Amino acid sequence: MRNVESDSPGLDPEDWPQARRQAHRMLDDMLDHLEGLRTGPVWRPMPDAVRAGFDAPLPLEPTPLGRVHQEFLEQVLPYGTGNLHPGFMGWVHGGGNLAGMLGEMLAGGLNANLGGRDHAPIEVERQVLRWVRRIFGFPDTASGLFVTGTSMANFMGLLVARQTALAGLPAEANQAGLVAYASAAVHGCVSRAMDMAGLGRGALRLVPVDGDGRIRLDALEVAIAEDRVRGFRPFLVVGTAGTVDTGAVDDLAGLADLAARQRLWFHVDGAFGALAMLAPNLAPLLVGLDRADSLAFDFHKWAQVPYDAGYLLVRDGERHRAAFASPAAYLQRESRGLAAGSPWPCDFGPDLSRGFRALKTWFTLRTYGLKRLGAMIEGTCALARRLEARVKAEPSLELMAPVALNIVCFRHRGQDPDALNARIVADLHESGIAAPSTTRLEGNLVIRAAIVNHRTQARDINALVDAVLEYGRRS
Ligand SMILES: *Cc1c(COP(=O)(O)O)cnc(C)c1O
């Protein structure tokens, strides 16, 4: 019983049985939604009235949870991106999964802070690190950390590389002249990381790609030599395992050799592609990945862990820690009690307070098992090959890039093909049948279908092609 005079009003329910019924209703509604995904459209435009509903006054007074949930059902649930739907093929979005969702709910209940201290949630994150090392063939001394996504992981990998390049130099040495290399197909977040690190995007040399979208090692070698002659200080090469536009995988073994020869840090952006390692017949594409100094990837893409769950893995855990650890009196480590268990995750990145991303990942990996996840990943690539075959078989369609993994770039032929294909994609989105995205390859606007979602099936591929043909004919 609360002493009304002196106790503060906490936030726990007064009526637990009623709160319990409401909680079960919310879970049931979400399960209904997941079970019925196929019966709805991939995406639907949000009516103006719904959008306007998000400009409500400050919620000064309480609202019953049931009413807030009702608003969620009416205003939020129907107007998502659609990335749970089997017809979603835009960008590179994961589809989520039930075990991960439930893990996320439990993590919310636990409300653990994974910055540090000695508790079981930290051991779950360490367990995932041990598995990640095994998956990618990294040594036991490698460190790893959950972060928001690969954009952050790439940025942090770059900071560790820079720290390493500057370590051992006289204190007055600065980062002037440091330059990095990546292919012209590298994700835009790497240029932004250069800016955020204060190196400037101009210090990222974009090396041309070959016909398969892979970095040209000969051109890379020439660029490095020229930079050295001009007094620049090459320190980093970023390889990509699965480029965002076409899914191309750089020659990682070749890059590892070159980086060793040139004494460069070798970072791999494997945002979605790195987890092809789980599929036995795709893993050979990633030969050399185990020689990277650092690897950024996402569990929230191909592994279908609910957003967000990015990861940074660093071969030399000491260098990783050296780039981020900082002393603070109130973060004092002890050998016993709750302040034991150092080093802590906060020693390996910029965040102090951190959520329990590891739990939804642990639930996902354990519940489905790596073999099944690998088979699912291979399945999405098989669907991409099916789409490729259908595109090649249709005279009015044109394949626009080789299919390396799970991304198919194609377009409808016609006059003014850029406008035509942009129109087809917008029509597709509004039809609710399928949601691919567009990109530009060598100046041409193309339809880009990234098959990431574990729910996508052959009939969804056929529905996409049939609809493209129909909308193309109509135009
Ligand atoms: C998605 C992606 C990124 C960015 O990852 P986020 O998790 O969205 O921050 C970086 N590189 C590649 C190749 C990607 O596909």
Write the layout of secondary structure elements.
Layout: H1 16-35, H2 48-52, H3 65-76, E1 88-89, H4 98-110, H5 120-136, E2 143-147, H6 150-166, E3 178-183, H7 188-196, E4 204-207, H8 217-229, E5 233-240, H9 252-262, E6 265-269, E7 294-298, E8 310-314, H10 317-324, H11 357-368, H12 370-393, E9 397-399, E10 407-412, H13 417-431, E11 435-441, E12 444-450, H14 458-474
Helix pairs in contact: 4-11, 5-11, 6-7, 6-10, 12-14, 13-14
Bound molecules: pyridoxal-5'-phosphate.
Structural overview:
The chain is of the alpha/beta class and 475 residues long. It has a domain at 113-355: Aspartate Aminotransferase, domain 2 (3-Layer(aba) Sandwich), CATH 3.40.640.10. It is 41% helix and 13% strand. The protein has helices spanning 16-35, 48-52, 65-76, 98-110, 120-136, 150-166, 188-196, 217-229, 252-262, 317-324, 357-368, 370-393, 417-431, 458-474; strands at residues 88-89, 143-147, 178-183, 204-207, 233-240, 265-269, 294-298, 310-314, 397-399, 407-412, 435-441, 444-450. It has a seven-stranded mixed sheet with strand order 2-8-7-6-5-3-4, with helices on both faces. It has a five-stranded mixed sheet with strand order 1-11-12-10-9. Strand 5 (233-240), helix 9 and strand 6 (265-269) form a beta-alpha-beta unit. Helix 5 (120-136) packs across helix 11, helix 6 crosses helix 7 (188-196) and helix 12 runs parallel beside helix 14 (458-474). The longest helix has 24 residues, at 370-393. It is globular. The model has no long low-confidence stretch (mean pLDDT 95). Residues 92, 149-151, 187, 189, 240, 242-244, 269, 271-272, 298, 310 line the site of pyridoxal-5'-phosphate.
